[in-house]
Amino acid sequence: MRTDMCGELDMSDVGREVSLCGWVGRRREHGEHLAFIDLRDHTGVIQCVVDGAHDLRSEFVVRISGTVRHRPEGTTNANLATGEVEVGDCTVEVLSAAEPPPFPVDERIDTDEGVRLRHRYVDLRRDRMQRNLRLRATVNSAIRGAMEEQGFVEIETPMLIASTPEGARDFVVPSRLKPGSFYALPQSPQLFKQLCMVGGIDRYYQIARCLRDEDLRADRQFEFVQLDAEASFASQDEVIEFITHAVAAAVEAATGERPGDVPQMTWHDAMERFGSDKPDIRFGMELVELTAVFVATEFNAFKADCVKGIRVPGGAERTRKQLDDLTDAAKRYGAKGLVWMKVDADGAINSPVAKFLSEDELSGIVAALEAEPGDLVLLVADDRRTVRHVLGLLRLELGRPPVNEGGLRFLWVVDFPLFEGVDDNGSPIPMHHPFTMPHPEDTHLLDGSPDDLQNVRSQAYDLVVNGWELGSGSVRIHRGDLQQRIFGLLGISEEEARAKFGFLLEAFRYGAPPHAGFAFGIDRLVAILAGEENIREVIAFPKTQSGGDPLTEAPTPIDAAQLDELGLRVLPPKA
Ligand code: ASP
């Protein structure tokens, strides 16, 4: 139907007869018999000069044939790729009429997201969505290429499965053939990829869809897509290399530039220096240890397990009101209070608590934080966890650049703890998942006290970019005895383990290679690359914050016959 794409015509096409197809964008009528029409397809727009009366309205789908010509002197448009040319002597064929669109496609008008999603097919015509979805395809293709280059084989794992424990709530699907029984939709392909390793696949990958029934956020949907990978006879460092290569290929395909080496940081250092296991290293403002400065302090508020501070360069200009707001924020995050100090022009410390501190303490703070005149210093004293948490959040609030500034700063966080706290029954909770191999130097602690257990490191690692957790992975347990032992520590009885993961334990009896793997979120990576704060902007048909799809109206009730067939009855909603 067409000879060319709208956005690709330029001076080299002048004189050619072309046929173009697309949507009618902006129109300018000149009297009754002449109209300038911007014809749009996904490559861009071209101005068409249409003679004669045509009832062409916005978003009509048309085929326009005509001759490419140079635009008259003074009417070229430098902001448009095709701005030097236009199509004249046009004949127009309407392929599809259109009702007025629910929102203009060609103007940068902020449209309510609900309306955009309700008419997503119109929204998809806009530049932003076209750019984002095509970027996503580029990223997927680069990732596939990079994984295949490294010997990974794409294997599809099932969607209807028994539950995989990633720590979230399952989406379940009722079975018609076995009424009263349910499939779970995969929270990840975790167990299947491990079975692939037992099956000799050696290196597996999949651009996998994962489903988790969790509250939705800017960086979280019920269903998301991840690059999922697993490799046999591979160490943590090798997996890190495979994944770094895939991410670098994706970034290069998207931006034209390959990211530099990705540094590694232990979980412990990340927590101490940034108060977060996903540090945004685009900016400094690190947490500085001050506990030693206050070992003999007379100031009660600083007689604490841990004291740390951050320096806000130039922050001394903040008003009392702003400082009160920061204090409120610190309390909301869990601190008992926040101590602020301004460094005056002459180097003197200006703070409501200065009078309670000794000269040594004051100079100790300034020295440790390398504070300079004009700076603001914020201190929190509490138990170590609280101090890290609160200052980590304040640091982000005060220093975090917008999503599209400061470049892409990737970071591997390694040596995560095996467990994070304990559940209501006093059993430790796995930090990653129950299949993660303990750190070889810490296995002796597995027999120790609850405190010892909290100090066991694991061979788990996360990839972080600009403060977003992009993905996680680990070296896996590949021996049934150790896996049973970890299940035991987690409070999973032998019976329960057999019922839930018996197939995995059984597989391990038949020759399981050592293996390790990783998964990273493609929605998040593409959002970062597109400079979008919200992953919904890089998903063709996302759910709203409340989990609905305004376009198809899912989720919807099902009819009685369908319920009957499934052996289900719906109870009235709980009050
Ligand atoms: N299954 C894990 C996840 O989806 C990733 C991994 O350990 O490979 O988070």
Topology, element by element:
Elements: E1 17-30, E2 34-41, E3 44-51, E4 61-70, E5 85-96, H1 113-118, H2 120-123, H3 127-149, E6 153-154, E7 172-174, E8 182-184, H4 190-198, E9 203-211, E10 223-232, H5 236-255, E11 264-266, H6 267-274, E12 288-289, E13 306-312, H7 320-332, E14 339-343, E15 349-350, H8 359-369, E16 376-382, H9 384-399, E17 410-414, E18 419-422, E19 428-430, H10 450-454, E20 460-465, E21 468-475, H11 480-489, H12 494-508, E22 515-521, H13 522-530, H14 560-566
Helix pairs in contact: 3-5, 3-13, 6-9, 7-9, 11-12
The chain binds aspartic acid (ASP).
Aspartic acid binds at residues 166, 188, 190, 472-474, 517-519.
Describe this structure in words.
- The chain has 575 residues and is of the alpha+beta class.
- It folds into three domains: 6-96, OB fold (Dihydrolipoamide Acetyltransferase, E2P) (Beta Barrel); 130-265 and 409-539, Bira Bifunctional Protein, Domain 2 (BirA Bifunctional Protein, domain 2); 284-399, Gyrase A, domain 2 (2-Layer Sandwich).
- The protein has 14 helices and 22 strands.
- It has helices at 113-118, 120-123, 127-149, 190-198, 236-255, 267-274, 320-332, 359-369, 384-399, 450-454, 480-489, 494-508, 522-530, 560-566, and strands spanning 17-30, 34-41, 44-51, 61-70, 85-96, 153-154, 172-174, 182-184, 203-211, 223-232, 264-266, 288-289, 306-312, 339-343, 349-350, 376-382, 410-414, 419-422, 428-430, 460-465, 468-475, 515-521.
- Helix 3 (127-149) crosses helix 13 (522-530).
- The chain binds aspartic acid (ASP).
- Aspartic acid binds next to strand 21 and strand 22.
